Amino acid sequence: MALNIALSSFGVPVPGGHLYLNDIVICTAAILLDPLLAFFVGGVGSFLGDLFFYPTPMFVSLVTHGIQAVVISVFANYILKEKKALSSAIGVSIGAVIMVVGYSLGRAFIYGTVAYAIAKLPFQILQAVLGAVVSMIICFNFGLIKKIKKFGF
After folding, report:
1. Between the CA of residue 105 and those of 36, 56, 70, what are the distances in Å?
2. Which terminal residue of the chain, N or C, has fewer Cβ atoms less than 10 Å from its own Cβ?
3. Cα separations (Å) of 42 from 19, 78, 84, 112, 118?
4. pLDDT(153) > 80
5. Hey, is 55 helix, strand or coil?
6. 0.90 cut: is pTM over it?
């Protein structure tokens, strides 16, 4: 959760906006943890990161990243249990759509303009794809799942 708070508190400057790396943490935690713990890491962690540094979208972050984390966790841990990589890939793909749609709708509501939400859409898509891909690499190619299981999680 601390890593999510830290990474949701600042973005990497890119032309036209910022890219936030906290989706990597959210997706990774959701693959590894049960849905309740995933919600705390994803939703509550993002909420706190926004609360401390940029409170305007904090409730959008709570709901969007919370639902994203729960959905990924359910897929990764309960659906197609014998094919964890496949179920995790499906989960992070659906989670990416949830994040992009949730933030687009949230921005349109909070800032009162659809144009602002559309302008930020490429950054949301990039953030979602980056989070999904990197989390899958960390969990499956770098063997994080096997290492976590050694500790009894």
Report:
1. 24, 14, 19
2. C
3. 17, 18, 20, 25, 24
4. no
5. coil
6. yes
State the pairing for strand pair 12-14/17-19.
antiparallel
φ and ψ of 127, to 5 deg: -60, -45
CA atoms within 13 A on the CB side of 112: 0
Per residue in 66-117, pLDDT (tens digit) is 999 999 999 999 998 889 999 999 999 999 999 999 999 998 898 888 888 8
Mapped onto helix, strand or coil, the DSSP state of residue 94 is helix
The two three-digit tokens of residue 110, written as one number: 């909070």
Rounded to whole angstroms, the Cα distance separating 96 from 147 reads 25
CB atoms within 10 A of CB 39: 22
Buried/exposed code over 104-140 (b: 16+ C-beta within 10 A; e: otherwise): bebbbeeeeeeeebeebeebbebbbebbbebbbebbb
- Rg of the chain over CA atoms, in angstroms? 15
* Separation of alpha carbons 16 and 41, rounded Å: 28
C-alpha–C-alpha distance, residues 13 and 85, integer Å: 32
Residue 14's φ and ψ, nearest 5 degrees, are: -130, 155
